[in-house]
Amino acid sequence: MSNKELAIQLLNRIPEYKMYYILGVLEGAAIPEELPITNALLSEPSLAKDWLSEEEDIAWKNL
Description:
By secondary structure, the chain is mainly α. It has one domain (3-60). It contains four helices and no strands. The chain has helices at residues 3-13, 19-30, 39-51, 54-60. It is flat, with a radius of gyration of 15 Å.
């Protein structure tokens, strides 16, 4: 079994609420090496939990 196949099997066992952490790691690994990795890029998936909420949409609706 390849590493990619093993990773897919493991991903299928991870609960949805933990996927933000996994996405952060994957996005960091997928950035081309010639681009600098910044804290903003690494924290984006974690912050997206709050940004993509209905409460957040309501708060920003009138701006």
